[in-house]
Structure prediction request, 308 residues.
Amino acid sequence: MSESPNDNRDPAPRQSLWPVGFAVGVAVILVGLVVSWPAMVLGAALAIVFGVLWIRDTARTHAPVDSAAAHALVDDEPSAQRAAAEEQHLETYGRSGFLALATIGVGGIIGAGVTLPSLGFAVLPSFTGEAVDSPDVDLGPITNFPEGTFTITSFTSNPVQGDVSRRTAYIRNNGLTKEKQPSFTIIYSRCVHLGCPVQPNGPRFEDKEVKFKDVTITPVQPAGFGCPCHGGAYDTEGNRTAGPPVRSLDRFAFSIKDGHLILGKHFSVGTVTGTGADATMTRYRQAYPGVHVDGIERWLYPIPVPGT
Ligand code: FES
Prediction:
């Protein structure tokens, strides 16, 4: 029987949904870069799975094999012809298949070269967090912090950096908790809108200032805290009461060692409920000013404001 002119043509490429899945995976990665790293991991998994399936599919579809003829030869033809047919059967990479795979491979390498560095810059801060001040700053004897009184406490957070690392915290000795543990409210003075220094709204008692090494402790009687830059206002627990700040003022953890108040880790706070020793709050990893740490806004406004 004569051979049809169409018999040797490459079969039309099969339609595949794998590229769509791959594209969705890449899109999820990009969204994850902005929203959260779990979404990015999900996107990467999707991209890898669908990418592999796509490459496998591409490799299979580029093999114009006359398998019926090859199998027919198995029983009827001499061994040389059978070997040739089997060789044809084993050739799974035609020129178009090679070009397709080469294009995908080169594109993948270029894509990785472009994506990985920016991915590193975008993702690593999620794992490392913002640079954290020295966690152990000795603020001196707790007797320098009168119970029930706020103090403006200035200290050097990193002795190596010197005065550029001077920080201010508003510290109130709350006395003891129900469990008879010392309680301190330690509010960081940095405004959580754009980082200006918030000020206590109330009289300062400079004449009662005390010093411990380079720590200065000045009693103050605030009705709240205000930010001079854009009118942000906070109550005495650091909750935002007015203006553009997006969350409560950050706080510091603390410990007591040999009768001294030791400044601990800086952390961020959503909303504080209760006051003083009875205050409850959820701690979040130290966040930049302008960043929501809780609620739906955390998902709607995930982009941090760098450099503040
Ligand atoms: S920086 Fe404080 S209100 Fe804007």
In short: The chain has two domains: 18-61+93-128, 137-300. The pocket of FE2/S2 (inorganic) cluster is lined by residues 191, 193-196, 227, 229-230, 232, 243-245 (CB under 6 Å). Residues 137-300 form a domain with the Rieske Iron-sulfur Protein fold (CATH 2.102.10.10). Residues 189 and 198 are 5 Å apart (CA to CA).
